[in-house]
Amino acid sequence: MVVLGLNHRTAPVEIREKFSIDKDKLQMVLANTDQIAGLKEAVVLSTCNRSEIYAVVELEEDIAPVVALWQELVDIPMDREFRQQYTYEFWGKQCIEHLLLVAASLDSLVIGEGQILSQVKHAYAAALENGSTDTMLNLLFHRAIATGKRVRTETRIAYSAVSVSYAAVELAKNILGALDGCRVLLFGAGKMAELTATHLLSQGAPKLFVANHHIERALSLAERFQGQAVPWTEVYEMMGDMDIIITSTGAPHYVIRPREMAKAMAGRRQQKDINGVKTRPLILIDIAVPRDVDPEVGQLAGVDLFNIDDLESVVDENLQQRQQEAVAAREIVEEEVHNLLDRYQYLGMQPVMSRLRDKAELIRRTELKRAMRKLHDLPEEDVRIVENMTKMLVRKLLREPMSSLHDAIGTQQEQELKGAMESLFQLESMGNEVDADA
């Protein structure tokens, strides 16, 4: 089991945005993972701050099938040099621990943020729907989701309002001093825009303007927050009148380019500080991945441009309480990792135990059937007694071998005992000699 991915710690936003995956393409690729040699199972987790593939491969330490899957999803060559510079690769226990930390929001840009658990659920659901998972990843993701829920229930890690949208609003407030009287324009009307609107109003922003390609979505969001929807055809004309613009459209291309912004700034009304000395800057915060704003916009006079990576310093100032709760959350993760490893070890021994039990049961039924042919006049009650006796004989004969197999799980004797059982009871060829005698 392995995870190959990149996140906000290993790759800047200009790299992460290239790993944004179209939903339809993801569905198609997941449905055809059986065409990739050496790949047995796969789940793709893609968010604004991380892109990861969790996989089960046929050969230990063989990362090639996972790289091949990545190449089906993105156009960037995932050669060794690229992987060494931007990605991480975790196997076995480290892979398990990594996903549980992700689901518990302990690996997020904002510790304790609530979106990641939902994103993990959706990633797993997409893989399940398209048939790209089996026992190993099913068990892993079920446990990861349960761990994320447990962390949020048993700790206060999500208690204080800290998120990317919150950090964006805090950044604007820190620059401008206060949001009272500020005119704010939101590009986008999705979940991130909704969270941003909530934080803006709580910090004193008097009125919000909402722009979206689908005007009905802009109208819906604006109505909820007593704001004003702006038709996409008119939004560029009014940018210069704004104090703050926050973008989160999810568009695959830039929605604000230097030409549009330069035109807007040329007609910008003069806004001065309390002493009437200097022009107030236009704060432009791009929290979308892929980015909504061309980086060259930041070179324009009077525009202060920030992207999602710039929010890290703001986030750090609001995390002291969550860091304390993270200690308790990590203890939960460690406990769940240990439990999950036990389950996986049992899965490794389970096939031998099942084959031994099945072979014994097959022999029992065969011999009972043979005996009943000779005792055809036996009363029904006596037949029941004989059958129960054969079941008890099998159960008692298997008790000690089964106990030995179970006790060997996770020990140095596990593989040796599995091989011995398979050889002594000829489990690889179970049923052949029974069928011949039946």
Explain how this protein is built.
The chain has 438 residues and is α/β, with parallel strands linked by helices. It has three domains: 2-154, Beta Polymerase, domain 2, CATH 3.30.460; 164-316, Rossmann fold; 344-437, no CATH class. Helix content is 53%, strand content 12%. It is built from 17 helices and ten strands. The chain has helices at residues 13-16, 23-31, 64-73, 80-86, 92-103, 115-129, 135-154, 164-176, 191-202, 215-224, 232-238, 258-266, 312-316, 320-374, 380-408, 414-424, 432-437, and strands spanning 2-7, 39-46, 50-57, 88-91, 183-187, 207-211, 228-230, 244-247, 282-286, 303-307. The strands form two sheets. A six-stranded parallel β-sheet has the order 7-6-5-8-9-10. It has a four-stranded antiparallel β-sheet with strand order 2-3-1-4, with helices on both faces. Strand 5 (183-187), helix 9 (191-202) and strand 6 form a beta-alpha-beta unit. Helix 5 packs across helix 7 (135-154), helix 14 (320-374) packs antiparallel against helix 15 and helix 15 runs antiparallel to helix 16 (414-424). The chain starts with a strand and ends with a helix. Mean pLDDT is 87; it is low at 271-278 and 431-438.
Total of domains? 3
Please give the count of helices: 17
Which residues form runs of ≥5 with pLDDT under 50? 271-278, 431-438
The CATH architecture designation of the largest domain is 2-Layer Sandwich
Query: What does the radius of gyration come to?
Result: 30 Å
Structural descriptors:
elongated, 438 residues, 3 domains, single chain, 10 strands, disordered C terminus, 17 helices, alpha/beta, four-stranded antiparallel β-sheet
